[in-house]
């Protein structure tokens, strides 16, 4: 599954982060200030404001240049909706087990975003998340990557003609512009194949996700005023 794991940064941009505080329950907005707010529902599966805040807090997504806070949060929510759709499909497919080493590798990537253990643990506590919960979320992402490689990867084929075209039209001009040495095509054939495979696989993922969304029941509350968002509290101790 090495090829699938190599796509992690491109196709898995978000963590659907769930605070370990029990199951959400809906209440009217006229009650006391709620613990949380509902941003979207994907086939009866809620996405909460706190989950979006956790994605930002753990540093998994950064604002684009010139992107204001509203557009930034909108982009994250769109990603969370897409991941819900993928998770639901993967859950239907089913996996006997997830490679522990791959989960641990991604855990260390997240951990490496922080300067030291103390700041990492402090951020997890701030986000109502623990290491076990983070590993469980990463395991779900690994499941999606494995699914993508096994189910969608079979549709992707990169031939010698495509490799040569990329070499002539993309790689060589870029190296020449930077005054870098140009290797013979035989030496870079496999790296080029992987680049092209990732591009094609991302296209398949987009088509797959669009199809999932067309067939799903998605309710999106994002464009409402915050005070109009459905209020959510949590059952504690479950």
Short description:
The protein contains 9 helices and 5 strands.
Descriptors:
single chain; alpha+beta; 5-stranded antiparallel β-sheet; 9 helices
List the helices and strands and how they pair.
Layout: H1 2-5, H2 8-11, E1 24-27, E2 36-42, E3 45-48, H3 49-57, H4 69-93, H5 100-111, H6 117-126, H7 131-152, H8 160-177, H9 185-214, E4 218-220, E5 231-234
Antiparallel strand pairs: 1-5, 2-3, 2-4, 2-5
The shape, in one word, is globular
Instruction: Describe the largest sheet.
Output: 5 strands, antiparallel
| Rg computed from alpha carbons, rounded to a whole number of angstroms | 21 Å
Strand fraction equals: 5-15%
Question: Helices and strands: which structural class?
Answer: alpha+beta
Helix content: 55-70%
Number of helices: 9
Q: Which spans of ≥5 residues are poorly predicted at pLDDT below 50?
A: 1-31
Strand tally: 5
N/C terminus separation: 35 Å
Series of H and E elements: HHEEEHHHHHHHEE
- Mean of residue pLDDT values: 80
Structural commentary:
This protein is of the alpha+beta class and 238 residues long. 56% of the residues lie in helices and 9% in strands. Strands 1, 2, 3, 4 and 5 form a 5-stranded antiparallel sheet that branches. Helix 4 packs across helix 7 (131-152), helix 5 (100-111) crosses helix 7 and helix 8 (160-177) packs across helix 9. The longest helix has 30 residues, at 185-214. It is globular and about 60 Å long. The two termini are 35 Å apart. 22% of the residues are buried. Residues 1-31 have low confidence and may be disordered.
